[in-house]
């Protein structure tokens, strides 16, 4: 397609007329957005069709990335970018008197994820399409994504995220490709035709309807698919049996109970609470997804015995790990394979990524609940477990070991163990994380299956997180070193020779200032708050969790505040501290931390005696679209988790790519960032892994020692509960208790001094602009290796064994 500006203008006007019978002056921004979205989807549709045709015709191996979460964000801007028509569109709309940026702002974020895990899935989809790997997403089309956050009187209030209220221009409903998923009932084993078969009785059948969204590759004709499933009753609106018996209420109840499966994303990424609805969600999309893969596969007339040569299924954390049993069920019961053949195919097909070692987040399901909801699946897991336990026993002849490694034990099914046993690859998401999995959390399994374990350090798509979100920086890079880096992000290193060049430094500085001014305007327009673009922008944006230590950041700020109060002449560069964080609705301590941040903000922001040297801003409703605004204007990136707790982090990489200086512990991928950029270009503080692990193991940490011996800490902590923050003393009593009486699980007090020193180093470094800019440029230059294109190359080569496919148009 040879799109010109004139053609786009006329297509757009026609679309607006066909959809809404409106001319431009009569149309709202919403309608303009919807018309433009529909048009862009149309521009991609031929490539989408051709991609599918060619994948099928050429029998290429395809990857299916199974994930409960895809935190996509907005699609208009990234689709225009990947189609290569951003400036064309901008110019065309400008001619029509429309500002593209304003139209982009109308789009609701697709917030179908909690945080890092869901956003990683979205970056991976973009990378697979952009480097030409036949890879698709499979997940749930939640009616409501992650809640919208409002701050009322300093507290978080959750509001349902009705993201579909204006429709969704990007998806295509494929009702003709619906799949039946069965729950509950009884399994009746029968011996027919010389083999055992399993018939189901009294089950509940649910219809899974797929909605497909095109995943457009960067200027390469590839358009992959994100398939999200929505639950409906089979007889559409009513349970006919109940209805005909006159039980109208029961019929309606059934309809709502089925629809509830795909109604809402669980907003808690901190602990499992064994809710049956969540298990239903998991089985629902996994079963529908695998059934639809098999259906498509069979159309290609290849034998099921070669399934694993053409299909890879990747499970994003344990949430879809039921895939192991479901693929076995379909191969055994539907395809009539022997156990051994089905097992070989299943394990060769499936690969698993672990994203957390936090104990509370490791999924396990009570046997009774599981068995009732999924009787046949349970039988299969029992058999997998039995065979596995036998193998372990044969190898070690050690019953304790068998017990420790069993998939089913103490009344629970351990989903991580099922995922490990049933897959051919297990990976962690950063070097340190993988080492901890191998040597500690999963050491038994590493010993048993040493070849399954591997590391794949996370990445981020540089298209969304640099080209789209920071066009000024991206253009300067291209002006300086050409545009090779766009296809090969490792080439960002070519700007390194300019890191000491004063002219280049000035340009980078000006861009950062410009971004900061734009954001300051946004903040003024939306929140009525004035912030100073000449202050250091210090940013911590991520989910609120004790291990991420937003409290350490607040303590650092309070310490600085008290120093300024004691010494009003203290010379520091003014700083604006930004926080953005959603707390899981049931995570009390996290919610109290939000209140604490807002309380400290109110106190300090209103204290004129410190001459505006500190400002604190809590950014409401942190989301992908807000991240795209704040990250390009950050000077300092806060990555301050307790070492060993953050599996990788991906925000850390986004900030680095946009030239922020990172203040970090040697946790997660911060370690690899430090290795890449060098010690001088990152500010490291805090305990290292051995120290943390030894304190944990030997229980030799006593937070009160630090409270008693460090007068700064004593002052800060006393002031939490003595009314000096202008709230009742009881308000933060639980945070106080957590830190002192309950011994500060994540070592905030222990790392405090080191953190304050690191912040002082930051202040000093920022004063020396040439050094700071040289550091900033080095960070950008070394960030290319963290493009998810590199990560996906490694998944493809080491795990999926997929080949790139050129789509011919
Ligand atoms: C866990 C749970 C547990 C219970 C129910 C709901 C739910 C939903 C999500 C999660 C995910 C927790 C794991 C997670 O998000 N890990 C993050 O993964 C990122 C991508 O690999 C990584 O960068 C972060 O460090 C890691 O915390």
UniProtKB/TrEMBL annotation:
Entry keywords, A to Z: Carbohydrate metabolism, Glycogen metabolism, Glycosyltransferase, Pyridoxal phosphate, Transferase
Highest taxon in the source lineage: Bacteria
EC number: 2.4.1.1
UniProt catalytic activity: [(1->4)-alpha-D-glucosyl](n) + phosphate = [(1->4)-alpha-D-glucosyl](n-1) + alpha-D-glucose 1-phosphate
Highest classification ranks of the organism: Bacteria, Bacillati, Bacillota, Clostridia, Eubacteriales
Annotated source species: Clostridium acidisoli DSM 12555
Function, as annotated: Allosteric enzyme that catalyzes the rate-limiting step in glycogen catabolism, the phosphorolytic cleavage of glycogen to produce glucose-1-phosphate, and plays a central role in maintaining cellular and organismal glucose homeostasis.
Enzyme superclass (EC): transferase
BP-aspect Gene Ontology terms: glycogen catabolic process
GO molecular function, one term: glycogen phosphorylase activity
Coiled coil: none
Name this protein carries in UniProt: Alpha-1,4 glucan phosphorylase
InterPro entries: Glycg_phsphrylas, Glyco_trans_35, Pyridoxal_P_attach_site
GO cellular component: cytoplasm
Record-listed N6-(pyridoxal phosphate)lysine modification sites: 654
CDD domains registered for this protein in UniProt: GT35_Glycogen_Phosphorylase (cd04300)
Similarity-based family: Belongs to the glycogen phosphorylase family.
Cofactor needs: pyridoxal 5'-phosphate
